[in-house]
Amino acid sequence: MRNLPGSYCLLFLLAVITACGSPDSGDTKTISPVATSAREDQNYLTMKVNGIEWKADHDITGIVHPKGYNNAIIISGKYGPADKTEQTFNLNLYNVSEPGVFDFVPGNKDLCEVQLANLSDEHYLYGNVLGFSFHTQIVKMQKSPAILEALFEGLLIGNAGDSIKITDGKFYFHE
User: pTM for the complete prediction?
Assistant: First the structure.
């Protein structure tokens, strides 16, 4: 590069940097690529609930293999004021030793569970003991410092006998 003009060197460096930052092609069985946040240090939990965007605005937590649990992955976040109307989402997977795809329903052998609570006074619980059919992809995980990236979607049965569909679920947590 010694004999190249400065502008060619700059273009070459930009091409190298861009190529190094390109995402892998990935598995064709994934839900969708993990969206990058505007800031890499900003954790997020987003999804669509029956097509309407839901985004946690506080207490976004990702835990990888907490002590006392069998290779657990815990994903959670909350939306709204910290009172009785606060909406909470929890996704707990067990026996997860590495990234991969996990499909589960009530009574699954690993006791994995998912729930969304407090959508309204009449619809206060979806999932968990009421029923669910869920698909989760753990894209990246590390215990310490905690790094957890996941994609998810599925169906949750509600306390009023109805159900909701979760789509485009994305979780990004870097401690």
Answer: 0.75
Rounded distance, CA 86 to CA 57, Å?
10
Handedness of CA 132, 126, 71, 153 (dihedral sign): positive
Count of Cβ atoms closer than 10 Å to residue 87 Cβ? 19
Phi, psi of 168 (to 5 degrees): 55, 35
- pLDDT, residue 138, reads 97
> Would you say 80 and 88 are in contact if contact means Cβ atoms under 8 Å apart?
no
Tokens at 109, concatenated = 């052998």
Q: How many residues does the chain have?
A: 175
Residues 6+ apart with CB under 8 A from 98: 141
For residue 169, how far is the Cα from the chain centroid? 6
Q: Is 139 exposed, middle or buried (0-12, 13-18, 19+ CB in 10 A)?
A: buried
Under the banding of pLDDT at 50, 70 and 90, the label for residue 40 is: low
Residues 113/128, Cβ–Cβ less than 8 Å? yes
Beta strands in the chain (DSSP E): 44-49, 52-55, 58-64, 73-79, 87-93, 100-104, 113-117, 125-127, 132-142, 147-157, 163-174
The fold of 40-174 is Lipocalin (2.40.128)
Q: What is the mean pLDDT of the chain?
A: 81
